[in-house]
Every structure is written in C-alpha cells, then in structure tokens.
Amino acid sequence: MSKHFRNFVCSLVILITLYVTGVLKKCIANVFQDQYLLSVWLLLLCHNYTVTLKRKNPCKATALDFVFVIDSSRSIRPEDYDKVKTFIINLLQFLDVGLNSTRVGLLQYGSVVQPEFSLNTHTSKAQVEEAVRNMQHLATGTMTGLAIQYTMEVAFTEEQGARPKSLQIPRIAMIVTDGRPQDTVEEIAAEAREAGIQIFAIGVGRVEMKTLKAIGSQPHSEHVHLVANFSQIETLISVFKSKLCGDMCKVVEHQCQHICVSSPASYRCRCRKGFTLNPDGKTCKGESLTVKHFQSSCSEAVSDLPPCCLSEAEDMCAAADHGCDHICVNLADGYECRCRPGYELTIDLKTSFIVNSADEQFHQVLIAAGIDYCDLGNHGCEHNCVSLPGSYICSCMKGFLLAEDGKTCENKPADESLCRCESVIVFQNQVTEKLKNLAQSNILLFCWFPPQRE
What we know:
GO cellular component, one term: extracellular region
Number of strands: 20
Pfam family, one: VWA
InterPro entries: ECM_Assembly_Org (IPR050525), EGF (IPR000742), EGF-like_Ca-bd_dom (IPR001881), Growth_fac_rcpt_cys_sf (IPR009030), Matrilin_CC_sf (IPR036337), VWF_A (IPR002035), vWFA_dom_sf (IPR036465)
Protein name: VWFA domain-containing protein
Largest sheet: 6 strands, mixed
Oligomer: single chain
Number of domains: 3
GO molecular function: calcium ion binding
Radius of gyration: 33 Å
C-alpha cells in the first residue's frame, strides 16, 4: 500500500467517524474557514497512525527459536538487573514473536538454573515483555556452564517448544553475563554449538574475553560482545538491529574468500565445490589433481560455457579486466581464472605458481615447464601461441576460428549459431590430445582447475 493511498484511507475513516458521531455536522457551517486546520489535523493523525504501524514492524525478521540465558548472580546490583530487563525488552522489538514466527524462551541462572518461560509459553510480544518485567533477581552464584547445559538439553527440546530440526528453524541462545563462571564452559559450549545452537555471548564489566570466546559461536567478531558496564549494554541494540533485520553478508565486511551465507543475526563462509574451509573460517583450500583428473576436466571443460554459444555481452573474459595469469574461462554467472598444467592458483585466484614436488619425474616436468616453446619463434601460430609443458598450441583472437591446420585463423562465420564453440572445442581437443601424449610418455603432471561457482 502506497503512502498516499494509506493517508487517503486513514483520512476517509476519520471523516466517516466524525460524521457518524455528529462532530463533522457541527463543523459544516465553518468548513471554508477551518478547512486548512482540519486537513492539517487529519494528516497529523494519519502520520501518528503510520508511525505506530512502523514501530510494530520495524523490520522483516526471520523465524527463530530464540532463548535468552541471563546471569542473575549476586554481583549484579538491582539497578543493573533492571537494565538487563530493559535491554531484553528493547531487543524484542526486532523479533516477530509468534507461534509460527519467532518463539522466545528465557532462563536465568545463579547457583542453579531457573527457567522463566519456555519457547511455547507465550505467543505474543506483549506476553513476553510482561514476563520479563516480572522476573525476580536470584542474587546467588555464577554457574554459566550449568546454564548452557540446561539450554542445550532442555530449553531447545521439542517438549519445550523448539521446532524439529528438520524444519531448519535457526536456534539462537543469547547469554548475558557479568562475571567469571564458577564452572567450566569450554566443553559444554562447544557441545551446544555442535548441536546446532548459535550462541551470542555478551559480557559486561570484568568478564574475560577468553571466556566469552569459549562460549560464543564463530566468527567471534559477530557473536562475542563486551561492554564496560550495564549502562553501555544499550549500545548493543543498534548492533543487533542490523543483525536481526538485515542481510549480514551485505552489512559486515565478511572477508569470505569464496561465498558468504547469511544466517539470522550472523553469517558464515562457504567454499566452492572442490575446496575446504581453512581453520580461519574465511579462506579456502583446494586440492591438486593428477593428469588423469586434468584430462577428465579438460574433456568436460566445454560444459563451462552456456549452450552454444556466448554472445558478446556474455563473454565476460573479453568484457572484463579479469587479470588471469594463465587462462580465463567464461561461466554462466561470470568468469574464473584457471592454470596451465604444472601450476596452481594463488590465494587471489588470478596469479599462478609452479607446484613444488620432490618427485624426480615431476622435476623433469618443471624443467620442461620452464621452457616457453612459444618464445622459440618457430610455432607458426598466426595469432596467439599458448605454451604447455613440453609443447604449445595455437589460439585465435576474438572474432576468429582456428583452422584445421591448428595454426592459421579464419574469420568467424556469419552464422552466429556456430559462434566460438567450434574454436573452443578444437582448442580443448588439442589440449587433451597433448596431455594424453605426455601421459603416455610417463611424465607426471599436476594441474588444479577451480570448479564452477555454485
């Protein structure tokens, strides 16, 4: 509904109400005199009504199973305990609370765990807010590990209102604590994260960052927060607003090398097929393949291209400044750089380096790879010469096709259906044939081709 239409409907409803109650009839005699003031008044009423609607739905939140885990130890003063409750109530404004949307549970802990309400207790935001206001301070110890264990084993069970894991509803626990735990947290927190619970650790005051990192999920930059005192805990509201309302991959500098995947209030990095995520949770590592895998990849390389054939607009390798050190390959959603046999891509996915090996046979390949057969000047290629270990092949510039002699180039035929597919197939067949010959000579090659983007 547009803003103007909403204002019109609002004004119409108010006018009808005034007419029915007789108020408008009394104003008819002075309509020309008070028309301006009446219009201003109606618009102000509609504006306030619109603002109220916006406050009810500040963002389009994702359905979650969300459990607050609140430290209620004796080190927290009564006025600070009230600030924690205010923080929770303010944070609720960014959650779409309901049985079929976000379910909210809460437990507080001291020397023991005291559940206040479970995920299936309340079905509206107002009910949750009222329950938070009625919480009573425990003022005992700080058994944080025990609280995490209860959260995992009880709070996030289907009996307590958590939805089945098969529905893939994110399970989020937000732990707020102000002191050093009196029990161990590392193992039980790791077990909870392994069980699929995304943990946010909020520390206030003298909590050690090491403890918070042992509790919170990765990346710690998004899941672990420490403020100096309870007065500053409200500063985290704006932080969690962007997490709960926005696409985290667009909000933060995720530094994912390959793919960033947004999740509620956070994100995670993923690698393309054929890669594994490094321990830093951001960069990816690929595996080198033998000549057998390379021949298979080369024979299927034409599948990287859309059905015959690429238009000028689709030829990203020609249109973009790709910066590929060796080979640029068009994909359906862009392009990617690849390496020649005996090389691997560096972390920038553009430049290449020679693979190291102590194998004597592979050492011979390195020696051969060091010789650029195109530089010898006797290749006979009309346009471009592409070096291979121990050999070379010819390729043509954009708009031309490689002739049957494998050296000269011909103008691209008028029939665009032929496009560049013919030259690509010829090129790939020549590469495959050269590699087969090298393999039959018992020369071991290593080549790594990054797979297609997901």
